[in-house]
Amino acid sequence: MKTLLEIITIEMEKAFEDAGYDASLAKVTLSNRPDLCEYQCNGAMAGAKTYKKAPIMIAEDVVSRLEGNSCFASAEAVKPGFINLKLAPEFVSGYLNDMAADEKLGVEEETRPKTIIIDYGGPNVAKPLHVGHLRSAIIGESVKRIMRFKGNKVLGDIHLGDWGYQMGLIITELKKRQPELPYFDEAFTGEYPAEAPFTISELEEIYPTASAYAKEHEDYREEALHATYLLQNGYRGYRALWHHIMNVSVTDLKKNYEKLDVHFDLWKGESDAQEYIPDMVKRLKDEGYARYDEGALVVDVQEESDNKEVPPCMILKSDGAALYDTTDLATLVEREKDYHPDEVIYVVDKRQELHFIQVFRCAKKTGIIPNETELKFLGFGTMNGKDGKPFKTREGGVMRLENLIREIDEEMYRKIMDNRTVEEEEAKRTAETVGLAAIKYGDLSNQASKDYIFDVDRFTSFEGNTGPYILYTIVRIKSILNKYVEAGGTLGGLEIRPAEDLYEKALMLQAVKFNDVINAVYEETAPHKICAYIYELANEFNKFYHETKILSEEDEQRKAGYIALLGLVKSVLETCIDLLGFDAPERM
Questions:
Q1: pLDDT score, position 414
Q2: Which CATH class is domain 4-87?
Q3: First-to-last CA distance in the chain?
Q4: Cα torsion through 415, 420, 424, 429, rounded to 10
Q5: 118 has pLDDT over 70
Q6: Mean pLDDT of 274-299
């Protein structure tokens, strides 16, 4: 179904044409003076020069053609040439009833759905998830859900860091500690053990120990580099160890991402791209795209329109080793072969923008992906502490993600128990649900590219622009609907009635924006706009709630209309928080 803004615009286009003016002037926007009107059109101002008329004369001509139009309660021409519009209550309630009857609340799916791959997550195996992984996971999950909601086929890929120097470090440290293991015996031809020779806790300790030692001991570093080389070239014992590292790490990663309600369709990594690198490199050489520069193989990606230098995309280092450029390009080769995506979205730290400019240009220039395939860089800013610096533990280290989640959950549990409205066990479950909303909403309510302050006290508050406030509003609506049913009412077959006061109409006018908001969020890949919208919707509901006798309304038809409206508002809020990646409890 068309968005409300589209319907109003069509009506205005007809009015402009009937008055003898170009329909392109009929652009309608939300009013920037809500005290005067709800929507406005400034096309008469733009048309004055073309038609050599005063803007107010054009505006009056158009307004005269809107008399009797069922969409508008009033249309007024205001000097110097604005057209102020107020919607008819019957039109608004009719639109809301159409939304309520539609499975997706009126949001139209793509007529030609796209295949979209979202590259988000990106943790290195054998390392614990920390707060630095939070934004990629939260933003990527929301973008995935938004793209799917519009009817596209979407694949989320974690794109693990599983093939680099850190693997050589782990192998070298294991060899130092347990040289008797069969993985290090070149003469061993039997079956390697099914169980890994380490736990996830041991593995997470091994890597930083090895990394620190390698920085101080060149011979150890060289050994680790050689172990990496042997692994990548198929040495049997090291491949077996690598499988152990992967199994133990991925099991732990899945557990932690599950706590965040973040889910990947593809658990691929840099290692999956390895088999595509030799043929890709050969083709880039054979077809003249690549050249040698001081021993390194590069592809030039500078363009005439660039204001500053964009360095060549490095395909191989001078020693023949692959880099991130190489594996990212080879991953695109693999994705094109397996999925033929129409779009690939990378949700990564904004400081990696130059790397992706190089990779995208190289991929297009060399035909790794077709020209029409859209490659999108969604760069996010840093999550900072109250001191404005990257978020740390109280001791100054990088905080593990599971510890942050636990800290938020404990704070929510304390606040819920202070209210003493639920039993202890229910309070724990509710704290996890509300805690997740606090984390995700706290992140997503900021524009992705901006740095933001992670403030536990503010994010866990039940007041203000927070996840708990949104959930508290939903729970309040659920409570009203439940009481209506308990008193003998039924929620099926109810109809939203035209608004009878300002608070009811304000709530309705906010609810009808849903489709326009979702379309804007989709086009701009901007989850923060959902947060801004539902905060306003929650505010309008709470004003309506405080000013209206809902369940004690004596007029049964009016009461039923209120309940129908609340049912729709609940559906809109629940749909939006699902797109953000969290849900609401039954009670708080």
A1: 92
A2: alpha beta
A3: 35
A4: -50
A5: yes
A6: 96
